[in-house]
């Protein structure tokens, strides 16, 4: 067998093996999207209930809370970046990191110092490689986020928000994550988490005729209890969205990898056939030439 | 008399929802019973049992941890980061 032919056959085989792997990953991701999406929709009643309660408080009372008041001067801002723990998801992680970089650039141009909270091994790796500092890191559970993780993140950002700026506390918190738009599109999104912007007038339409709202024990305590929960649910929602988007991105990336492998296999098969044919032609002409020489020698 | 529309919601799912005649929950100030027509209210739960009495007289108990209770025009929501039927 010719050397060229052997090289082509090897390439075909390696493309086939790769295709098997990418195909399997594509199928796994496809099945996980369903589950992740189901989790997103299962968590909506909770976040809807909390949003409604928060807007009720905002509508029926005019209490200022430390989490809703805009500080006079913002010295330091925090960015929470949600990435995945694993790669092979196309532009999923790089687009969210790029978005975060742009935001950091913008905040710095406004004279604010930027600190980072990182979620996911990819963000941590990105920062480590560039020898950059980050305040806190969480890794290992971005694929299947539990509520405890959201709580931990919320506690950490709240703690640093409530600390004084002179002690290294932050005055503003942003979250950057991928939202699941559809199977084909995942867009990086920036949300300012704190100080909270309670949008006035978002209460239910049927609430307009009820001026009375009783708070137990009192408005301040209810707000104290409610707002951290609201933050937790926002972070939890972002985590779930990011997980669903990650699976969709993986599926898309693996699908195009499988398609690419298919194309490679076709191309190399053509080349291999060509090489084989050339080899046969050469062998025939050698035999014919040899026979001719024998006849002539007689 | 109108019935209450109750839903018990935890962070990752809706635990129970349906119509009820009465809801008894424990807030930080003590136990509170809610009947249809209750005024709008927002209370912090002390953790523990929430008892829901169905229109037929049956009872459902749910455990809810650090959450809150909101009542608004006959719809009652028990929202807790962790909640389960017991």
UniProtKB/TrEMBL annotation, chain A:
Keywords: ATP synthesis, Cell membrane, CF(1), Hydrogen ion transport, Ion transport, Membrane, Transport
UniProt cross-references to Pfam families, sorted A to Z: ATP-synt
Gene3D superfamilies: 3.40.1380.10, ATP synthase, gamma subunit, helix hairpin domain
Domain of life: Bacteria
Key word Cell membrane present: yes
Localisation per UniProt entry: Cell membrane; Membrane
Keyword Cell cycle: no
Main location: membrane
Topological type in the membrane: Peripheral membrane protein
Subunit structure: F-type ATPases have 2 components, CF(1) - the catalytic core - and CF(0) - the membrane proton channel. CF(1) has five subunits: alpha(3), beta(3), gamma(1), delta(1), epsilon(1). CF(0) has three main subunits: a, b and c.
Family, similarity comment: Belongs to the ATPase gamma chain family.
Function according to Swiss-Prot or TrEMBL: Produces ATP from ADP in the presence of a proton gradient across the membrane. The gamma chain is believed to be important in regulating ATPase activity and the flow of protons through the CF(0) complex.
Protein name: ATP synthase gamma chain
Gene: atpG
From TrEMBL, chain B:
PANTHER family documented for this protein: ATP SYNTHASE DELTA/EPSILON CHAIN, ATP SYNTHASE EPSILON CHAIN, CHLOROPLASTIC
Main location: membrane
InterPro entries xrefs: ATP_synth_F1_dsu/esu, ATP_synth_F1_dsu/esu_N, ATPsynth_dsu/esu_N
Pfam families xrefs: ATP-synt_DE_N (PF02823)
Keyword Membrane: yes
UniProt name for this protein: F0F1 ATP synthase subunit epsilon
Cell location: Cell membrane
Cross-referenced SUPFAM superfamilies: Epsilon subunit of F1F0-ATP synthase N-terminal domain (SSF51344)
Swiss-Prot/TrEMBL keywords: ATP synthesis, CF(1), Ion transport, Membrane, Transport
Similarity section: Belongs to the ATPase epsilon chain family.
Entry-linked Gene3D superfamilies: F0F1 ATP synthase delta/epsilon subunit, N-terminal
Topological relation to the membrane, as annotated: Peripheral membrane protein
Phylogenetic placement of the source organism: Bacteria, Bacillati, Actinomycetota, Actinomycetes, Micrococcales
Subunit structure: F-type ATPases have 2 components, CF(1) - the catalytic core - and CF(0) - the membrane proton channel. CF(1) has five subunits: alpha(3), beta(3), gamma(1), delta(1), epsilon(1). CF(0) has three main subunits: a, b and c.
Residues covered by the ATP synthase F1 complex delta/epsilon subunit N-terminal domain: 4-83
